[in-house]
Amino acid sequence: DIVMTQTPLSLSVTPGQPASISCKSNQSLLHSDGKTYLYWYLQKPGQSPQLLIYEVSSRFSGVPDTFSGSGSGTDFTLKISRVEAEDVGIYYCMQGIRLPWTFGQGTKVEIK
Amino acid sequence: QVQMVESGGGLVKPGGSLRLSCAASGFTFSDSYMTWIRQAPGKGLEWLSYISSSASTIYYADSVKGRFTISRDNAKNLFYLQMNSLRAEDTAVYYCARNSRFLDVWGKGTTVTVSS
Fold this sequence. Notes:
The complex is a heterodimer. By secondary structure, chain A is an all-beta fold. Helix content of chain A is 0%, strand content 48%. The model of chain B has no long low-confidence stretch (mean pLDDT 97). By secondary structure, chain B is mainly β. In chain B, the strands form two sheets. In chain B, strands 2, 4, 5, 6, 9, 10 and 11 form a seven-stranded mixed β-sheet that branches. Chain B has a four-stranded antiparallel β-sheet with strand order 1-3-8-7, with no helix packed on it.
């Protein structure tokens, strides 16, 4: 199975400040079709996960442009340019290149 | 409105069975791949299984292979997870999700507790 490792596991951020989460896979997520199958999800408290970013850097419909994804191969980053109160929750990266699809351990983001 | 609603969770003894259902609405269910994912208490997300639109392609995680069976009824916009030989470690919130290019629509989840 592909192992997804996120750092840090928790983050406390002052509102309006940026935040960054790293996600590393132990195998390349670049497919022969040219796409890289790395996704970011946010699970807000008491809710089901919601898709933020797909294929490394594409924002899903309705996701504010304060969220951005970058990276390639095995190394990826989710950045929040200005953290707001509604951004609190647990962020997960997920690989979709090879079954079983696997998630990172999650990064808990809270507001200072 | 696009939505998924799970049902069928509950308390079951070890070794018992349960069938989860997921009702889909607001999109063409028969064209969609569907997925089950679970989250044990205080833990992360674990992909369990997916089924293609016609049910011709099905995959399972090793942790549930041979015990769980995914199926669907396109006429009713429903898909299912039959869970047999349940263990304490199967205790979790079970989510269904639509699998388009990505997991873009999730249900709110249904809780399964396996305990004597």
